[in-house]
Amino acid sequence: MPHSLSIKDLIFTWSKNSDFTLRIPSWQVEAGKKVFLYGRSGEGKSTLLNLISGIQNNYSGSIQVLGQDLGKLEQRQKDVFRANNIGIIFQQFNLLPYLSAYQNIVLAQRFRSAEHRPQPETLVSICDRLELSSKLLQQKALELSVGQQQRVAVARALYGAPSLIIADEPTSALDTQTRDQFIRLLLDSAQSSTVIFVSHDRSLASHFDSQQSLAELQQQGKNADVV
After folding, report:
1. What average pLDDT score do residues 19-35 get?
2. Ordered structural domains, the chain, with CATH
3. What angle do CA 91, 97, 100 make, to 5 degrees?
4. What span, in angstroms and rounded, lies between the C-alpha atoms of 23 and 182?
């Protein structure tokens, strides 16, 4: 089975004087897998996601996402590749407060290549699945409840059927019941996508196909295949 993510000999540090170094000898994630990546706060989880998504640069080694070596792309090409292929769910959802829910969902599509832009009926299907009514879609993001903002963030990540979805601690501020509902909603809605879900809370791992410790990834010298 092909890999959605393949990392080899990755080393990243902020500067020569920085005490922080992210070092991953090898990590592969199979296409379609739902992976839970855990680690302590400050250990480098968000940094790793930024490297995988092409937001952060200046690393040594190889990062291949969906068969594309990110090191061979210019920054503009990385931005287009991310828009075309990766859905991101941020810790605080990152909705623009004065835009409507609908505008927040479709905003990223302007950065996609024409051949990757989804048809409008695709969004209708996603919103129906996420119980986002047409009335709710016209409301400003700041008027939405936390649960509604969650669903909008998931819809934004899913719109365009990205092959890879990255979620960076999106449940950290939620209570247990709301948190579990959010994860089930995400995974049920992203069945055809690879998902890398990051958190420091290991109690969430049971929702996923497999779990991986960032500390173990940094310590090992052998391949760490997610199977």
Report:
1. 93
2. 34-50+76-214 (3.40.50.300)
3. 110
4. 31
